[in-house]
Amino acid sequence: MASDRLIWLIHNDSSGSNDREALDGLGRACEDRGLRIAWRTSFPTEELPTPAMLDAAGADLVAIFAGDGTVNAALDALSGWSGAVLVLPGGTMNLLYHRLFGEQDMDQVLDAVAAARVHRRRPGIIASPLGNAYADLLAGPGTSWNEVREAMRKVDVASVASETRAAFSETLGGDPVRCQEPPLGRVEGYPMLQLQPYDQHIAVKAYHAETAERFVEQLVSLVNRDFRSGPYDDLGTTDRLVLAGVAREGLDLLLDGEPATTRAACEFVLARCQVDLLASVADD
């Protein structure tokens, strides 16, 4: 890419990873590589830019320095745009970033962008009536562990304790989630299912937390800021999946970390991202 490339930056002003020091550091890193931040959107304080706004400004590259939830909202807002989007690691998990760039750090990615060693890619995503998931989708009573993770992120010791108790109770006593179509895994369901989009399929994992040993493993995962690394079963792959609760059919969900709820069974299908993302990793 040519030098002095202009960037429209989207960041999340409520994210602990997006403090002034981090944003200033990003600005310097871009300037050093001839990538100049010409426009900024601080989300959610400001509305996300639309394709029409970007085209009117003459912008053709958007950088998103935020977590997966903000990335999700921004990519939905940019659907149909002809420009390119650079996802940067501005959150806790940064799952989509790692899908696009592997284990490269942000400096390496910015080097690659400046040297035109990246390509445009429209990865597979999960589409549903409740919204899209670009990184992953979690379903079931085990999603209550997300509240523990959020309390840990905020270093709120009291909330960590109370949310942990609530998560134990919900995971054990909540309505399990099951794969209704196709019938993958056990009919009695699971505390949590994870759907991960790839270009050719959706991978399905089932998480457990029925025993004290499993709970300890889950807590270790939480301490490491990754509740998804707990014990699970690989249920295989599909391009379409209907999930439902065992007793009441409704579901508690996390779409790229953002909560959603449905009162009925819900269909999830493999779809294609509707805007070009910059990447250095080949299609998965």
Automatic annotation (TrEMBL):
InterPro entries: ATP-NAD_kinase_N, Diacylglycerol_kinase_cat_dom, NAD/diacylglycerol_kinase_sf. GO terms for molecular function: kinase activity. This is Diacylglycerol kinase family protein. SUPFAM superfamilies: NAD kinase/diacylglycerol kinase-like. It comes from Aurantiacibacter gilvus. Residues 8-119 form the DAGKc domain. Keywords: Kinase, Transferase. The keyword Ribosomal protein does not apply.
